[in-house]
Amino acid sequence: MWGNHREFLRMLRREPGRPTLFEPHPTRAIATQLLWRGGDAMWDTVSHRVDTLIALYAYLRADTAVIPADAASIGEVLELSHKLPEEMRFTILTDDAAALTAADASNAVCAIASACALSGGDFAKPVIFMAEDDAGIESAIRRGASGVHIPDSIEARYDTYGRHIALLGGLGICQLNSDSPAAIHRRIRALHEQTGGVGYAIGTGSDGMTEANYLSFISMLGIFNNLVSEFRT
Asked: What CATH number did the domain enclosing 23 receive?
């Protein structure tokens, strides 16, 4: 029921469906705690990093594994796609033009994500913009992106922009870290009711600079898994 890139693409098309997750900047601390292993060997080579991230996203029950890459590493990353669970695909996160071009041409990739000034119409794959504010969201819409990853204020921004573009993340690290597990559950359930499962992927909205604490992160995962289990086609 999970680990299916088609569900992620359905979300980017803003079609109704089951909940999906997008967490492009998981920290090493979170990965260590969730996977019950640690050390530099998890991250010291491209192969090890991809192995770790595939294992982590499979544990998270995500539909896509978000892999950072550049021109030097994209070839090796794509060659490791055979390690993905059967229906999972990569989303490549990069601002490198050569890496974006290679990812766009690969059947192992279902979407590309970038913070640089791209046009969604330049790519065959759906493009997700990594935005910091409303201006970034509006730029993503103008440029033809399928989705936009936002740091916070998801409820208000969904009401404003959700008819025009899929929104990903947006729960806000600071708010998550200050809320109780019960409050996180109530908020995400209310958000699911607000969006109707259309054009939204659950996620902290982290830019990789600020960490969600472990309790907040697993509380988010808990309600995500509950919503997936409750979903009926």
From this structure: 3.20.20.210
